[in-house]
Amino acid sequence: MKKIIALLLITAAPGVLAQAYPVKPVRLVVPFPPGGPTDIVTRLIAPKMAAGLGQQIVIENRGGNGGQVGTEQVSKAAPDGYTLIMGTIGGIAVSMSLNPRRGYDTLRDFAPITQAVSVTSVVVVHPSVPAKNIADLLRIAKAAPGKLNYASSGNGTVTHLAGEQLKLLGKVNITHVPYKGGAPALTALRSGEVDMSYENSLIITPHIKSGRVRALAVTSAKRSKLFPELPTVAETLPGYSASGWYGLLAPAATPQPIITRLNTEAVKALQSPDVAGKLSSQGAEPAGGSPAEFTAFIRSEISKWAGVVKAANMRVD
Description:
The protein is α/β, with parallel strands linked by helices.
């Protein structure tokens, strides 16, 4: 009889756990400073998720080292569903091959919840750079190797990868200047501190329209609906593609019922017309999907970018 009772309790436990969670606010770490694209996406999704969960979601910005500081912090948090991260391509996928000294292993230390969005970047230059397209840019770079420089939002971020891919395929030498997030990288570009950047469509649009920067191309494999007039880099350099993505993850060993509940609320938030509309209008394509699908996607991204890191001889500066 005792064994039967124990078995019934174990069987019922996941349902009870799912019903009880959450009983207090959930901390959601953004591994970049406020005002950048990851922060923007998170703050659009979090309120809708919080409403579904019935608890406040407290966003905490933990920038540093291309998103790896905040990512490492969450990897060591208690696996109870009360500490999550909006992971990025850099901290979650690229760091696996770029930084052997990172303090975590993505596949071992995280439980994926869902991919949130995919985002296109735009190749932009300061108006002082006399390039109107990618072909012009390559000619300028070849005429003075190492003189041009580009800002990224940190080592291993999609903006870093975008720059290294262009250097690799275009056979040019352009100096990489990493910053601690997309917002400070954009500030550096606008001020003329750097010559060019690969800016996230979530934050660059008003600066293109104002003339503070000049757009040359988009980094996605296909032309962007947000910038239909801009060619892709691949139209000049076949095979080029560098789009970013963000997704929700929890520490490994977080109970499956909690992962399922978080996935349900996150996907509902992403599919809600108001959130989806706001994301799409700024160049972010809502994703969603199951934890298993996000896990498979992360594995494929780790493999893909490991090849780029090796071919471009990328390193942690």
